[in-house]
Design brief:
The protein is an alpha+beta fold. It folds into two domains: 6-109 and 260-266, Aminopeptidase (3-Layer(aba) Sandwich); 116-233, Gcn5-related N-acetyltransferase (GNAT) (Aminopeptidase), CATH 3.40.630.30. The protein has seven helices and eleven strands. α4 (136-150) packs across α5. The N and C termini lie far apart (53 Å).
Length: 268
C-alpha cells in the first residue's frame, strides 16, 4: 500500500514551494501572504508579472487586499493574480475575489505518480530524440523552445550564462536536470525536473505550437520520469492544466490530488 496519500503529497509540494527564489525575483513574504514579482525575462501570456501564491488571512480580506494592492502599485502595475489553493484561508477567499472583480485566469491540477518499474519504458517516437541539457548548445536549444513556446522575450547572454552554470551544477549534484526533444535536428519540446530526496518535481514543460498533439510532451515526460527514477526519486509531483497537460499526465498514471484556481484582479 502506498504511503503517498493526498495529505503527504500536498505537504511535499508545499515544502518545495517554500524554497527561496533567485535574487532577480521580488519575493514579498508576510505572515498572511506571499507575493512574487517575476523577472521580465520570464513573463509571458501564461506567467503573469505579479502573483499572490499563498494567503492565510487573519485580518479582514479588505485590509489584506488593500495592502497587496499598495505593493502592486509600487511596482508600477495595475493588475495582479491571486491563487486559491486547499491551504488558502479564510475559506471564503475565492468568492471574495470574484466579488472584487476577479476573473478566473488559470487553473492547475496537482498530480503525482509513484515511479515504479514501468517508467523505464521509453515512449519516444522513432523520429524524435531526447537529449539531456548538459552543455551550451543543448541549453540554447531548450531556451529557444521556451522562448517561442511561451512567447517570452529572448534571453540575453548574461542570463544564458547563469542558466548554464545552474544546469551544470544541478547535473553534478543530482539536484535536477532538463531535457530537450529534437525532430530532424530541430528543438521542439523541453521540460525540467528538480530532485529533493525521493521527490522528483516536474516543471517547465513546453512544446512548439506546430509540434503539439504529436507525442512530444509525452516523450519529454517519459524521459524525465526515467531519469528521475535513476536519480533515486520514488515519486513525481507536478501541476498540470486540466484540459491540456493534465489529461496526458492522468493517462500516464498520475493521480489528481487537488486543484488550484487563479484570479486576475485590477486595481485603480
Amino acid at each position: 500500500m502506498s504511503n503517498w496519500n493526498t495529505q503527504r503529497t500536498l505537504g511535499a509540494l508545499a515544502t518545495l514551494d517554500e524554497a527561496a527564489l533567485p535574487d532577480e525575483f521580488l519575493d514579498v513574504r508576510r505572515a498572511e501572504y506571499r507575493l512574487i514579482r517575476y523577472p521580465e525575462r520570464l513573463i509571458s501570456p501564461t506567467l503573469p508579472a505579479a502573483q499572490v501564491v499563498w494567503s492565510n488571512a487573519s485580518r479582514s480580506l479588505d485590509t489584506l487586499f488593500d495592502e497587496i494592492a499598495s505593493e502592486i502599485r509600487g511596482w508600477g502595475l495595475d493588475a495582479f493574480h491571486w491563487w486559491v489553493t486547499s491551504s488558502t484561508r479564510p475559506l471564503d477567499t475565492e468568492p471574495y475575489l470574484v466579488a472584487r472583480g476577479g476573473v478566473l485566469s488559470d487553473s492547475y491540477q496537482i498530480l503525482a505518480r509513484e515511479l515504479s518499474d514501468d517508467v523505464t519504458e521509453s515512449l519516444v517516437p522513432d523520429d524524435m530524440r531526447i537529449e539531456l541539457v548538459r552543455d551550451e548548445p543543448s541549453l540554447r536549444a531548450a531556451i529557444l523552445v521556451e522562448t517561442k513556446g511561451w512567447g517570452r522575450s529572448p534571453s540575453d547572454e548574461q542570463a544564458i550564462g547563469r542558466r548554464l552554470t545552474e544546469a551544470l551544477h544541478d547535473l553534478e549534484t543530482s539536484a535536477g536536470f532538463q531535457v530537450v526533444a529534437f525532430v530532424d535536428d530541430m528543438p521542439v519540446s523541453t521540460g525540467c525536473c528538480s530532485i529533493a530526496g525521493e521527490v522528483g518535481r516536474l516543471y517547465g514543460a513546453v512544446t512548439l505550437p506546430d509540434f503539439r498533439l504529436r507525442g512530444c510532451y509525452q516523450a519529454v515526460l517519459s524521459s524525465r520520469l526515467r531519469h528521475a527514477r535513476d536519480l533515486g526519486a520514488t515519486i513525481a509531483l507536478t501541476r498540470g492544466r486540466p484540459l491540456t497537460s493534465g489529461r496526458i499526465l492522468v493517462r500516464a498514471g498520475f493521480t489528481v490530488h487537488g486543484q488550484e484556481n487563479c484570479y486576475r484582479l485590477t486595481i485603480g
